[in-house]
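Quick one before lunch.
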Amino acid sequence: MQGREDQRSGTAGGAGPIRTCVGCRGRDSDSRLLRIVHDPETATLSPDPRRRAVGRGAWVHREQRCIATALDRKAFIRSLRVAGNVSQDAITEVLEALRPGHDTTRRPFGPAGGAQEEERTRHDEHTVKLQR
Ligand SMILES: [Zn+2]
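Model of the zinc ion complex:
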């Protein structure tokens, strides 16, 4: 069920540099990819939709498959050269927001809440298991 492929037609012609997705290793315009950054102070990985964070960034397609694969391989951690424990909860949240059936008009990194809260929690537990 891939109802929402972000304008897959016409890969060329997009402005902006080409980045490599840490999930599928595919190269794409950075406008199609989500930037992930590491905050050493809080030891968390988080999306950087405005791309204002300094330092290294890891890039991933805004697609369930790519984000799930990257989480599974710890590709963000490796790409960002993070040592030690780091929380990937914020990335998991993006993944959850991309699940089919969710309100796709909502931004994946926007505020969560409402009636879907209970379901999100259940999915979170499932994702954590997959990360091991
Ligand atoms: Zn990808």
